[in-house]
Amino acid sequence: MSSTAAMSVTDAQALLDENFAEWVRALDLTVTDFCPQFTVLHMPLAPHLARVGGIVSGQALAALADTAMVLAAVAHAGEMRMFATTDLHTQFLRPGVGSAIQCRAEVVRAGKALVFTRAEMREESSDKLVATATATFYAP
Description:
By secondary structure, the protein is an alpha+beta fold. It has three helices and six strands, in the order H-H-E-E-H-E-E-E-E.
């Protein structure tokens, strides 16, 4: 895909379905928004994502955030590029419960080799903030 052609939500979903690890795809993520300014992913909560106590595991939230931020970097670039996570920091603010988590990710700054991103994860029905994350990606 050239940098002059805008990637669509469908393109982003295909990129996710065809290029990410099987265990990431097992999160059942759906791309709901995909534009140069931000990307939004939807993750339905299911028993295989729960930890003791019935809340979504921190590992699932971190993987959701990392995936959303990678796709935000791709959307910002305007083309499929390979990004390697060099730093990922996740803050867990409250238990993730309910039916789904929405993750909104954006690029804070993009340099020649490094892309800095941030994400917010909210419980879908209440819109309560569950976790935040920041990441730095290397773009070779």
